[in-house]
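User: Hi! I'm a student and our assignment asks us to look at how structure tokens line up with a sequence. Could you show me two examples?

Assistant: Happy to help. In each example below, the sequence comes first and the structure tokens follow. Example one:
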Amino acid sequence: MMKAVQYLFLCILLASTTFALEDLSSAKEIIVNSSLRSTLHVARTANSRVEQITAELYYFPLASKTLILQEQNINPEPRKIKEKLHFLWKNPSQDIIEIRVDSIIKSTADWPAITKKTQFPITTLPPEVMPYVMPSKMIDSQNPEIRAMADMLAQNETDLFELATKIAGWTKNNVKYNLSTLTAEVIQPASWVLRERYGVCDEMTGLFIALLRALGIPARYVSGISYTNSPLFDEKWGSHGWAEVFFPEIGWLPFDPTFGQFGWVDATHIKLRDSVDSSEPSVEFTWKASKANITADKLNVKTTLLKAIPAIEQRLSISVIPLKREVGFGSFNVVEATITNLMNYSIGADISLAQVTELDMIDASSRPLYLSPKQTKTVYWLAQVKVGLNESYSYEIPLLVFSERNESDKKFFKAQSNGLVYKKETFNNILKAEQAGITRVHTNKTVVLAQENKSVEHKNVSTTIIANTWSETLQEYLLKLLNGIKGVLTW
């Protein structure tokens, strides 16, 4: 009797906007030892017969422009068919059959230099990318709700990179990470994610791809491994999913809406496979046997960091100021951040304001931002100092604004019981611009207006305030905050 079993690599990734203690996200390149195992168990009876077992492995490291295989050993010896490994056992006598792929990998951050505008809408596409425009099982881009949302996000957009950054940022800020059984064990379709607004990296990436495909933009699902340094999890490396978007005359560019990496991915993103749909299997077993029970373990990947080379180049400069230096309890205030692209190519960035316990954030803490070469933009966050703070103290409240690569700036403002209480209306001009999705753009000292996506989701970062004088507690906190945590990733 012929039977088959498929195994998908479901990733579970909780993104955080705090800083990394061991910051691999800004590393120029890394070297890792990757060990992949897939095991099949054969339980025989007295009259059992196993004539043949085959395995198709789709999930393994392949050399590319950002990935060098310094060593690779595959056991048993496979037959390579395109981008999969084919294994065959005839009349196997062993009860445990194992596939092993051991690799020493040098991975470089994938940061393509985009120096010219790619027009949107796309008018012509090569035939080989057409499957990545069509709906698929989990990426149901034909869904009317997905098409309506995509059309809304694409209004007035003419630059493909800017639009892809906008959609990735919208996805990051509007799909809440939620490790429930619905998304951890079974991948959900993009239309479900749009409706329910939660999921893990599979769902976030699937929705991002669906929104792009609904606009005629080719996008594909990428599965691989990536790194987290959260102390909540023992395993720092695990499976992860992100996307690649096709740009005519350029090629495929990486976008990770879960990590907030738009048009680039860090060196810890080690690609093992790309596919039309997120539901495609990592390994597939088939066998011809009678009176034998055959089961397969989940595909197991272990990764160990051998070396990391930090990046020297700073791509963004960030300057932050509070619009009011001193306020009273219950007062509104606005945080202004000016971000400059230092490079001669376009950058998609995820700019975040670390939340503090004494402030209620009115705006999203994370903002997607597209910056053309050497361009400067200014964004704002509205916050309100909490009522009911201890009137015996004055508070110096830290404002920390940072990028996904940990470029950052921080300032403070003072809050005290006898300070001026500013109403929300005080900042009407700025708020109206923010509500309209308008961001200030600086070009040769002239301020113009440009449309930007407005995020809606808050992410929380705990902090400590200063009471009257500088405290050791806050110094220790700020050190931890500057070093912080990138995210949570496991499978």
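Example two works the same way, sequence first and then tokens:
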Amino acid sequence: MNKATIYYYDIGDYLNREEKLEIISTINLSAKLACTMQEQ
């Protein structure tokens, strides 16, 4: 069984929907880049 790593990032309640989605998109892109770099 492989272990998984869970990352938590608190974006707060004070942002509107668009701001929260922008942060999530940025985090998701960063995670994809990190995975791509590890594979090389």
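Here is something you could point out in your write-up. The two ends are 23 Å apart (CA to CA).
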